[in-house]
Amino acid sequence: MIREVIITSQSPSGSVHLAPMGIHVVGHEMLLMPFRPSTTLENVLASRRAVMNYTDDVRIFAGCLTGRRDWPLVAAEGAGGMRLAGALAHAELELVRHEDDELRPRLYCRVALEVTHAPFRGFNRAQFSVLEAAILVSRLHMLPPEKIEAELAYLRIGFDKTAGPIEQEAWSWLMEKFDAHRRKSE
Ligand SMILES: Cc1cc2nc3c(=O)[nH]c(=O)nc-3n(C[C@H](O)[C@H](O)[C@H](O)COP(=O)(O)O)c2cc1C
Fold first, then answer.
1. 156 CA distance to ligand 1 centroid (A)?
2. Which of ligand 1's atoms lies nearest the C-alpha of 131?
3. 97 vs 29, 30, 41, 128, CA distance in Å?
4. pLDDT tens digits for 69-120?
């Protein structure tokens, strides 16, 4: 099972990096699989720590993919690191082992601490649409235009029926990216 979360990690100089990542749940361990090159990968290898932020604010996913990485952070409750101030919950991870790979190293982590901050208020289809559209943005350079347009048309159905202002803002940032990409390929 893969959980779509925001990973916060810290460089040796203390700068905090945010990145949306799909984390594989493997028994009691969390498996991070960043594609090279990755700031998250470098930070986790150096600090042996990461914070997994559970959030339903899809602007953070869309924001990270569109140059908006400046989201409110607070110190995590455990042994260091920063977490999203608005996280519904977070898990503090410790790297236990890693398998190197040219393309996609595997970072196996244990959950050192897990804290809940706010209630989960149910699924929303527009949030799913934003996450999928954000993934499309991260793969724009690899996908044929017809596939992008077909997927967006499908994602827009659930989005139009169920989005609130947060989802609409996130969607608008992603649509700017798609528009710019279309103009570039004309
Ligand atoms: C929902 C979602 C899941 C993602 N999962 C991954 C992932 O598992 N591994 C990865 O390398 N990038 C993933 N990405 C793309 C990264 O967030 C993005 O490329 C980011 O810049 C990673 O590189 P960084 O560590 O240098 O920030 C995902 C993006 C989204 C929107």
1. 22
2. 1
3. 11, 11, 13, 32
4. 999 999 999 977 999 999 999 999 999 999 999 999 999 999 999 999 999 9
Is the full-model pTM beyond 0.85? yes
Q: How far apart are CA 153 and CA 144, in angstroms?
A: 15
How many CA atoms lie within 13 Å of 4's alpha carbon, on the beta-carbon side? 14
User: Which residue has its alpha carbon closest to ligand 1 atom 10?
Assistant: 34
Give the distance (Å) from ligand 1 centre to CA of residue 20: 5
Q: Which of 60, 62, 7 is nearest to 32 (CA)?
A: 7
Ligand 1 centre to CA of 64 (Å) is 9
CB atoms near residue 59 (< 10 Å): 22
Residue identifier of the C-alpha nearest atom 6 of ligand 1: 21
Burial class, 27, CB count within 10 angstroms (exposed 0-12 / middle 13-18 / buried 19+): exposed
Q: Each residue of 23-67: pLDDT tens digit?
A: 999 999 999 999 999 999 999 999 999 999 999 999 999 999 999
Q: How far is the CA of 92 from the centre of ligand 1 (A)?
A: 19
Question: Which residues line the pocket of ligand 1, CB cutoff 6 A?
Answer: 4, 19-22, 33-35, 38-40, 61, 64-65, 131, 134-135, 138
